Amino acid sequence: MTTEPLTVRRVPNAVSAQVGVGGRATGRLLGGNLTSLATSVGVRLPNLDGAILFMEDLKHKGLGFVDRLLTQLVRSGAMDGVRGIALGSFEGFHDVMDRGWTIVDVLEHQLGGLGVPVLGGLPCGHDVTGSDGRPDQVAIPLGTHAELDADAGTLTLAAPCRA
Fold first, then answer.
1. Total number of domains in the chain
2. Is residue 163 part of a domain?
3. What is the tens place of the pLDDT at every residue in 86-141?
4. pLDDT tens-digit map of 11-29
5. Does the residue 162 lie in any domain?
6. What is the dihedral of CA 121, 6, 124, 71, to 10 degrees?
7. Residue 51 sits in which domain range?
C-alpha cells in the first residue's frame, strides 16, 4: 500500500499484451471482471463515459462466450464515451484456438475499432501466477484517476484513491 502514484507496466509475454491500439487517455479507472461487467449492463453497471475501462477474465467457457460478453458491452452502448481500455489477465486462454481464432483475435476484433487506446498485458486479474506457480496479481484501485499510455505500455494510477 502506498500514498504514491502506482504505475503498472505491460508484461510483454502476457496473452493480452498482443492486443493494443496506440495512444494516451486519462479518466477514472472503472471495470473489473468481464463476465461481471457484461452481466451488469442495464442493472448496476456504472456510467463509463469518460472512464478508462479495465477488463480481465478467467477461462470458464470458450472464446465464443468472451465474444458474446464483449458484443453485449459494445452493442448496449455501455462503452460509449470510454476513453481507453486496459486489459488484464486472459492467461487461461493461452493455448485456446476455436475455428482459427484466439483470444487475441476476439479482443482485437471487438476492441480494436472503438477508436480509443487499448493497452493489454497488465498483470492484474484472477489467474495471474508467478514463476513459482502461486497467485501473483497486482491489485489496482478502481475508481481512482488513471493515465493510460498504450505506446509506453503503462497505466499510472493516482493516489490516494478517492471514490
1. 1
2. no
3. 999 998 888 898 899 999 999 999 999 999 999 999 998 877 666 676 666 677 88
4. 999 999 999 899 999 999 9
5. no
6. -70
7. 6-157
The domain that contains 35 carries what CATH number? Answer: 3.50.30.60
Strand partners, 28: 51, 145
Answer whether residue 47 is part of any domain. Answer: yes
Does 71 score more than 70 pLDDT? Answer: yes
Contact 30, 47 (CB under 8 A): no
Looking at the domain assignment, is residue 20 inside a domain?
A: yes
Chain-centroid distance of CA 73 in Å reads: 13
Supply 47's cell numbers: 456510467
C-alpha grid cell for residue 131? Answer: 514463476
Amino acid 163: pLDDT: 42
Rounded CA separation 13/2 (Å): 27
Q: Which residues contact 47 (CB under 8 A, 6 or more apart)?
A: none
Instruction: Tell me the whole-structure pTM to 2 decimals.
Output: 0.91
Asked if 64 and 106 count as a contact pair (C-beta separation under 8 A), the reply is no
What's the angle, vertex CA 152, arms to CA 33 and CA 109, rounded to 5? 50
Distances (CA, A) of 86 to 3, 60, 139, 140, 153: 22, 21, 14, 11, 10
